[in-house]
Specification:
The protein is an all-alpha fold. It contains 7 helices and no strands. Helix content is about 55%, strand content about 0%.
Length: about 190
């Protein structure tokens, strides 16, 4: 994984000046994400409307339509972001993790949480780190989450790996309106 670039190398597309295809995708993102602003990551990706449309569609499923519950989805996002050093996604999502778990989010201690949280986050850590995921863990998660849940978990980890690569390579800047949040040290 590349280090997070210190400067953003591609300017965001401006909604008002965007091609109609990109504008329609931006409008859909604003409607589904309900943030009140277009995230910089999507604005930058809007320089390639085809990529934006494909990536945003996978993200919409992973975030809003997967078989995983909302708390687990947010913890998976933070786990993958911590492993891969994606400060953009970390800052956007850490405040959505249950408050009692924030101090241990992105650390090995979170894997001690009861199922499905602990095993799912161990799976996410191993997968994001490029390590072997033991068959026993996959079998356990399949039993706990079902086929759909296991697939959605795997897709979610892959999606946030893609975003980590994109954000780091392009140097996507975090919006000033998103609160600062220190990332955990890798391997803690």
């Amino acid at each position: 994984m590349t280090s997070y670039r210190e400067r953003q190398v591609v300017a965001p597309a401006i909604m008002e000046d965007a091609a109609p295809a990109a504008r329609a995708i931006f409008d859909h993102i604003l409607t589904t994400r309900k943030l009140g602003f277009l995230p910089n990551m999507f604005a930058v990706m809007g320089r390639s409307p085809g990529a934006l449309e494909a990536v945003a569609a996978v993200g919409e499923h992973a975030r809003f339509h997967s078989a995983l519950d909302e708390d687990l989805r947010e913890m998976v996002i933070c786990e993958v972001s911590a492993i891969l050093g994606n400060k953009y996604e970390w800052r956007h999502h850490i405040h959505k993790v249950p408050e009692r778990l924030r101090p241990i989010a992105g650390s090995a201690a979170i894997e001690d949480e009861p199922a499905p949280t602990g095993p799912a986050l161990r799976f996410a850590r191993l997968l994001a780190a490029g390590e072997t995921v033991p068959d026993t863990l996959v079998d356990s998660l399949k039993e706990i989450l079902g086929d759909e849940g296991l697939i959605d978990l795997t897709v979610m980890v892959g999606y946030y790996q893609l975003l980590a690569t994109f954000c780091a390579t392009i140097g996507v800047e975090v919006e000033e309106t998103v609160p600062e949040a220190a990332m955990p040290l890798k391997g803690t």
